[in-house]
Amino acid sequence: MSSREQILARVRAAVAGAPEVRIPRDYRTTGAEAGRVERFAERVRDYKAVVHVVPAAEVAATVADALSRRGARRLVVPDGLPERWLSAAPSVERLVDDPPLTAALLDAADGVITGCAVAVAETGTIVLGTGPGQGRRALTLVPDYHLCVVLDEQIVPSVPEAVARLDPARPLTWISGPSATSDIELNRVEGVHGPRTLEVVIAL
């Protein structure tokens, strides 16, 4: 008998005859619909990300202004990103991921622009699911600047509602603000495992 089998046998013996315990599954699965966009914007700002809340018709101009302020001239653009989002920035060089961009090319880019799969108002989290306009995970983890466009209808109140919209077979990237970590002395370091700057355009 292996060590694993011995341990499991002891556990079974210890719980033999114990009454069955009912585990309640009545936890909250929905959140408040009212004010979800404002709540999402507030949470994202709390993470020290730059946030713009604009009408859908102003997304292109807002994106162009953001890229201009950043001085971004070479931008990673995943396949399937709506063309209209970059229509006001014709001078920006677009780096497409076909053939796949190397880590060196991604690192040399001025940033990346994406859409998202879903966003969570309660936590200020953006989820990328490698779908159209999102690209593979490396596209948003290597560049130092990430500009993300989030549509009003993509914002859900709670995490369970976000999970219900996602495809579990796809690689998922959950983003809660710019990349940052702290060591045991609480020294904050940014950009270790993702972009140091996150800018979000919320389209109403």
Automatic annotation (TrEMBL):
InterPro entries: FTHF_cligase-like_sf, LUD_dom, NagB/RpiA_transferase-like. SUPFAM superfamilies: NagB/RpiA/CoA transferase-like. Residues 38-202 form the LUD domain. This is Lactate utilization protein C. It comes from Sphaerisporangium album.
